[in-house]
């Protein structure tokens, strides 16, 4: 009997002293995610976070280590890391411990952008003198040494821009004469935005015989006229007038609402390339255009049919009306047999209507 007791005791001792691994049936923690930025900038303060779980419900502790830079704390599920400025990449390590098993270690390599330079605006390309209501291209000449994607923001207080967010927008200058300051801001999304300004002097509108006057081209849709000058003071049939405020601009539209003829009067300041406009002397007109192809003495209107322009003079032989239309190549031959071309008759009628119904006649 004594022998049996001894054997049982020995067996119990053997079983009780068998091999055990740390934790026994306890499982190590599992790291679900190590959350770090895909790329960082030197000097940035970024958040590092680890998401882990433990199947046994053990309390987890976290210990962080970085290759370089400064951590606001080495312990915790979330820490802040100040990125170093002298490495192309840095290793981030987190150790997760349940207090029972060996710690679980997760490592990630984080790329660090080298020192990034702000973009440089070399130039804003635009003429320093622009005709009123004319359309010109603004061009941003910008360099970025790092090849970053750039964003553009234009600030032009007067006139119309077709876009404020591209490098080469089209700007329609304002009606008002004087200086307009153009401001450009460029950003690379990394550095502080940079700015540059350019000043443009708005001078008188341009008159091109047979083509355009005061920023409006023959053939322009009337919607463009309204976009620049606003709602007309008077719109009757195919005619329009602007005299409140007084732009000294009138015109005639064709059957599909496009500008067919333009008529300028005081106080319009538009001029030709030779500086001929309202108030110019007949002598000055003839220095630029030569002698008229036809003269209506009763109205004092001198027609340049082949050039697409006509002038009406006041008693002092100064231009008081200026008429721009599509050139008529048949003139003046069409007058020789007493049968003016149809277009000539239309232009005469348009001018006659202006005389009889316009604000100018009522003054």
Can you describe what's shown?
Helices cover 14% and strands 39% of the residues. It is mainly β. It has an eight-stranded antiparallel β-sheet with strand order 20-21-22-23-27-26-25-24, covered by helices on one side. The longest helix is centred in the C-terminal third of the chain and has 16 residues.
Strand order of the largest sheet: 20-21-22-23-27-26-25-24
- Rg calc: 41 Å
Largest sheet: 8 strands, antiparallel
Number of helices: 5
Quick one: how many beta strands?
A: 27
Distance, first to last CA:
144 Å
Average pLDDT confidence is 86
Report the uncertain regions.
Answer: 3-21, 330-339, 358-363
The amount of beta strand, in percent, is 35-45%
Give the count of structural domains.
3
Structural class: mainly beta
What's the helical proportion of residues? 10-25%
Shape, principal axes of CA atoms: rod-shaped
Short description:
With 363 residues, the chain is mostly beta strands. It contains five helices and 27 strands. It has helices at residues 2-16, 222-229, 282-289, 342-357, 359-362, and strands spanning 30-35, 45-53, 61-66, 70-71, 78-82, 89-97, 104-111, 120-125, 129-131, 135-137, 139-143, 151-155, 160-161, 170-172, 178-187, 194-203, 207-208, 212-213, 216-217, 234-236, 239-243, 246-253, 259-265, 294-296, 301-304, 309-313, 319-325.
